[in-house]
Amino acid sequence: MRKIILSVIGVLLIIFSFIGAQKLIASKNKPRPVKEKIIKTVFTDTVKNTTIKIVIPATGSLVAKRRVELYAEVQGVFKPSHKLFKPGQTYTKGQTLIHIDANEYYASVQAEKSNLYNSLSAIMPDLRLDFPEVYQKWQNYLNGYNINKSTPALPKMSSDKENYFITGRGIVSSYYKVKNLEQRLAKYRISAPFTGVLTQALVTQGSLVRSGQKLGEFIDPSVYEMEVALSENYASLLKVGEPVILNSLDDTETYKGLVSRVNGSIDATTQTITAYIDVENETLKEGMYLEAEINAKEEENAIEIDRNLLLENDQVFVVRDSILDTMPVKPVHFSETSVVLKNIPDGTVILEKNVPGAYAGMLVKPFKEVISKKDAK
């Protein structure tokens, strides 16, 4: 019995060994799987050279083109008027901004005018006797003299004798003294040089104003200008009268402006040149920040692409027979997001979007071909 069991076990071992050997032989003859080549799908664009307008972006704040800082040249009490001297108050041209009490000074002016009138009256008898030919001229001046009005200019001297006589009596010096006092009297009243609005008020009505004290600021809100600093590379491109598009920082409003002035010198520290842009709009306010788009020049036979697509050593990826390759290019202008390139022939297929890990010799498939195959199915 024992011999029978051992015989059966031996036969089974032989059978299993044979089956295992057959499986090993079969596994050696099985072909290895071939790895499929990975082909990336990319977005491409076909080059078509055109004329590209080079736009220089710049930001700056608005400042009133016509502005006046108000200073007192005389001393006195600020007299109340029918308009409050407060920021935001509007005035028309010639309207009184500030009126300083000048009663005391006015009395001294009138006294000098009276002295001049008395001096003229005193010489009239001598003029009648010694200079009868000019007497009527001076008599007419005296008749028209009014101390409550501005002193008129003295009659023109017709001879040296008349000049010596009038000057020797102190008439000329007295006249210029009166005119000097009248000029100073006019400084007690400050009028608006143009129609505008008060933006700063540093004194209140009834307060004492001292000579040399700043009183406020007055601007014309109809015209503003924006100062922008640009790279010295654009010095030869900026032209006076060039139209400029101005945008608010949130891109909700657009305004039209003109380059009014360009500084003739370059800042030695920053190597920038300053340009001034005029803009008119009722909605604008002083101090607003705007972004300017200045048309510098037009570059012919060029294209504009995303700045990230430009490789080191001034090269870009091109697609040739489903394989990526590089091509040297000539950058002519950089902006924050794009670059203007030249020396790319028309019809060249370039990448439209950046491909992570891209390299020369990489197999690619344009996205347009993938779509067309799906449509065909």
Automatic annotation (TrEMBL):
Residues 67-215 form the Multidrug resistance protein MdtA-like barrel-sandwich hybrid domain. InterPro entries: MdtA-like_BSH. It comes from the Bacteria. GO terms for molecular function: efflux transmembrane transporter activity. GO terms for cellular component: efflux pump complex. Pfam families: BSH_RND (PF25917). This is Efflux transporter periplasmic adaptor subunit. It comes from Pseudotamlana carrageenivorans.
